[in-house]
Amino acid sequence: MAVVETEKRIVRAQAKYVHSSARKARLVTDLIRGRSVPEARTILAFSDRAIARDIERVLHSAVSNAESRPDLLWNGDDLLVETAYADEGPTLKRHRARARGRVGRIMKRTCHITVELAPSPAAIAAAAAAAAAAPKRAPRAAKKSTTETTDQTTEPAETPTEETES
């Protein structure tokens, strides 16, 4: 029995250096992971967290990437959020003056948000059924190359010139 490995096609979008901590972003990305795109958009639209707007922009970008690829021909509403995660980015270290000549550290954290989309199993089954139902075309015959050359020489048309008498 042969094992057939099918390469899973995914489309992703990433936003880097988002000014929010990864911990806050993970709370929202956990809500949309495994959901359909319309459902994820609804969750993000009604979320009270500020980072939900940034995640919604990344989701919109991933859907646009999927729809614009000519080799995939995916519809945005038929996609699932395969993975959604937030990794830590670089931390900006700032200082604030405190009492008695000391400083207090301010850590401005950033994160990288990634959203990956894949077609839903129902969409894959529908595409396979449509491909099976479509009539197959006969392969096109190779075009015959024409080796005949035409020996027409084009001479410039003579234009009458007027000579002026001085």
Task: Describe the secondary-structure layout.
Elements lengths: L10 E8 L3 H11 L4 H9 L5 H18 L10 E10 L3 E6 L5 E6 L2 E9 L1 H13 L33
Antiparallel strand pairs: 1-5, 2-5, 3-4
Largest β sheet strand count, sense and barrel closure: 3 strands, antiparallel
Q: Total domains, how many?
A: 1
Rg, nearest Å: 31 Å
Shape: elongated
User: How many β-strand runs?
Assistant: 5
Distance between the termini: 101 Å
- For CATH, the homologous superfamily is named as Ribosomal protein L22/L17
CATH architectural group: Alpha-Beta Complex
Task: Please state the structural category.
Answer: alpha+beta
Query: Widest sheet: strand order?
Result: 1-5-2
Give me the CATH fold name: Ribosomal Protein L22, Chain A
Beta-strand content estimate: 15-25%
Which series of helices and strands comes N to C? Answer: EHHHEEEEH
Mean pLDDT value: 85
Name of the level-1 CATH class: Alpha Beta
Q: Please, how many helices?
A: 4
Low-confidence regions: none
- Helix fraction, binned, reads 25-40%
Detailed description of the structure:
The structure is a single chain. This protein is an alpha+beta fold. 31% of the residues lie in helices and 23% in strands. The protein has a single domain, classed as Ribosomal protein L22/L17 (Ribosomal Protein L22, Chain A). The strands form 2 sheets. The protein has a 3-stranded antiparallel sheet. Strand 3 and strand 4 form a beta hairpin. The N and C termini lie far apart (101 Å).
